[in-house]
User: What shape does this take?
Amino acid sequence: MPIWKTSETGLQQISETTLEQQQFLEEHLEDWIVANPDFLEEPLLIIGRQVLIPGVNDKIDVLALDLEGNSVIIELKRGQLTDPVDMQALRYASYVSRWSASDFEDHARNYRDQRAKAEFSLSDDFAHFCAEQGIDKVPDLNADQRIILVGSTIRDKLGSVALWLRSHGIDIKAVEVEVYKEREGTFLQPRVIIPLPVDRFPSVVPDPSPRPWITDGRRWHLQERCGPKASEMLTKLINLVDETCEGVEGPHWNQKLYVSYSINSHRWLYINTQKTSLVLDFHRGTEGFNQADIVKRLGVVEFPTDGTLAEKLKLPSSISIGPQNPWGRLNIKEDFDLDALEFREFLKEVQTAFPKA
Assistant: This one.
């Protein structure tokens, strides 16, 4: 979209260019957004840049909180936004979804001036941020995760993926940065491409809740996320955890991708819901757990690190415990015996192994 300026001779079109042509780096784009979050056309509280994700040696370009307390993963590209960017951002969002309030506190404190570390409080900072926007009731942190992709142009493939993700409840936003050059300076114009511009004349029929997992998480997971068999498995698993693991908090239904349980307000078990299976992410804790031993005890197979996606999808119930990742993953399919005594004992061991501090 061209920009025009008035002059004595009439209108003159300002020359359009790109971030790359002007030799701006992704670091410059990051600097501008950190200094002026409103560049992304919404209020954001920046709590980190180049945020290291423990155990995977990856970094989030910019991490922020929005006015609903959601964590916002911001990924930047000075050139075209291409296909791998969305998968990278989704992976980051999955990691961040498991962070506790103390994790956010630590990252925010590291981001702030080192001299102010002792006095800094993220809860106070976030409350002040909300108050500035006229919000009196401060929401909980990390109730959900969002993604913002920022770049010069967005390819059709990525746009199609982003729209599909939004239609399935993933809050993803894409911003194109247009650049214009004049003798007196360079001008930037951010444009939100996804979601599509809102109609100025809204329908008289109210839209359904955009986040049904918040209003009725149980129904969302049992009837929308899970197919009939997986729904039956989830109901049985929830009852089993309630019977077997005393003193745990949950189930927590209000996340769009998983149901979880907590110990001392820290998540210790995630039940990722899918159409035909359930995926249990459990903290290895102090016990560590031996993958080969669990294979024998639970009658599952080892999940391979190589092989094609098609081969992995054909696997029966499986277990994966990486040497560096503090979390193990148990993929439960129809062949898995949820009533087995060995599985009950396994759940108790997972609870016992979880760090109490």
Observations:
- The first strand starts at residue 4 and ends at 7.
- The chain has eleven helices and 18 strands.
